[in-house]
């Protein structure tokens, strides 16, 4: 039942964005909707296994859906960005599908901090950035071989698997 609810939320957001903002670039998750329940289950399992932080790196495809349905960004904030109402003086001026975000998610095993890395335009460059962020977090915890921080990198469909960092 939970899987179906999470899948429905993912599809519902895509339908809404497509209907409400028909000409806007949004890099839809359509066809890959199962990413949302998969990521949410990974976070739940990680939290129950003692992980306290998850650092996520991904390209454009599905990023807005992940922001809302996994990291818990307020949908109204995203809709305001589409409508041009976002507060540029508080941000970098980058496009909405490059922005990072962080939040705390409650799991049965405790609170897990999620961080979605900002996405540079160069394909796959976010993966080494995520790995460096995870290493820095582990160093800060003084537990370099710990499972307290989990990196998740998602390879998009815009590059060939195994191609590595493309610039």
From TrEMBL:
Name this protein carries in UniProt: oxoglutarate dehydrogenase (succinyl-transferring)
Cellular component GO terms held in the UniProt record: cytosol; oxoglutarate dehydrogenase complex
Residue ranges of coiled coil: none
GO biological process, one term: tricarboxylic acid cycle
Record has Ribosomal protein as a keyword: no
Enzyme Commission number(s) of this protein: 1.2.4.2
Entry cofactors: thiamine diphosphate
Keywords per UniProt: Oxidoreductase, Thiamine pyrophosphate
Source species of the chain: Salmonella paratyphi A
Gene3D superfamilies found in the cross-reference section: 3.40.50.970
A GO term, aspect molecular function: oxoglutarate dehydrogenase (succinyl-transferring) activity
């Amino acid at each position: 039942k939970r899987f179906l609810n999470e899948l429905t939320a993912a599809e519902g957001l895509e339908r809404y964005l497509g209907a409400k903002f028909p000409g806007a670039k949004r890099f839809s998750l359509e066809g890959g909707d199962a990413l949302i329940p998969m990521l949410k289950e990974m976070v739940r399992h990680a939290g129950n296994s003692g992980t306290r932080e998850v650092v996520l790196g991904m390209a454009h495809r599905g990023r807005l859906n992940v922001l809302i349905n996994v990291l818990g960004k307020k949908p109204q904030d995203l809709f305001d960005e589409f409508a041009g109402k976002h507060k540029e003086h508080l941000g970098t001026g980058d496009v909405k599908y490059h922005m990072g975000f962080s939040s705390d998610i409650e799991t049965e095993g405790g609170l897990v901090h999620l961080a979605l890395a900002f996405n540079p335009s160069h394909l796959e460059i976010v993966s080494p950035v995520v790995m460096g962020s995870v290493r820095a977090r582990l160093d800060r915890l003084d537990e370099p071989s710990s499972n307290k921080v989990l990196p998740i990198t998602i390879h998009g469909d815009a590059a060939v698997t195994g191609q590595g960092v493309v610039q």
